[in-house]
């Protein structure tokens, strides 16, 4: 008999589909009229400031702040006319109940979390032919 004992790993959060991975360097007067879709969308401000519409809320996000648009939530963007924003946008499917934590909440990320988002972008550049800066791409290749 072996002295080794195993540990069962739990999968509390599983992302089943990725729809888009983007890195945008917008102009200071950028406007996106908005959309809604049936999957989650993470938006993180890498630099600058962005005005975000999320459902019936109008919010201002600054560098290091992140919002998760829940499925079917209308969302739109507007630069403030003074500071050009750089944004990370990742859209995905996830049915995990722990995603409820992110509903209607702005999260501030730390340096480690920013590093990991950067790693996701680096891997996306290596994995997909699709350019990460084209907002009109609807399918990763």
UniProtKB/TrEMBL annotation:
Record bears the keyword Signal: no
Entry keyword annotation includes tRNA processing: no
Full protein name: AraC-like protein
Keywords: DNA-binding
Coiled-coil intervals: none
Record GO biological process: regulation of DNA-templated transcription
All residue ranges annotated as the AraC-type arabinose-binding/dimerisation domain in the record: 20-81
Domain of life (superkingdom): Bacteria
Molecular function via GO: DNA binding
Entries under Pfam families matching the protein: AraC_binding
Signal peptide: none
């Amino acid at each position: 008999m072996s002295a080794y004992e195993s540990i069962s790993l739990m999968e509390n959060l599983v992302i089943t589909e990725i729809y888009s991975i983007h890195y945008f360097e917008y102009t200071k007067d950028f406007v996106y009229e908005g959309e809604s879709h049936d999957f989650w969308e993470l938006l993180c401000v890498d630099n600058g400031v962005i005005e975000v519409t999320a459902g019936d809320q109008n919010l201002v996000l600054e560098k290091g702040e992140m919002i998760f648009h829940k499925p079917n939530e209308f969302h739109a963007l507007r630069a403030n006319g003074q500071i050009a924003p750089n944004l990370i946008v990742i859209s995905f499917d996830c049915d995990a109940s722990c995603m409820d934590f992110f509903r209607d909440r702005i999260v501030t990320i730390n340096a480690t979390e920013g590093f990991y988002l950067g790693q996701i972008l680096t891997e996306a550049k290596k994995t997909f032919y699709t350019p990460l800066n084209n907002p009109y791409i609807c399918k990763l290749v």
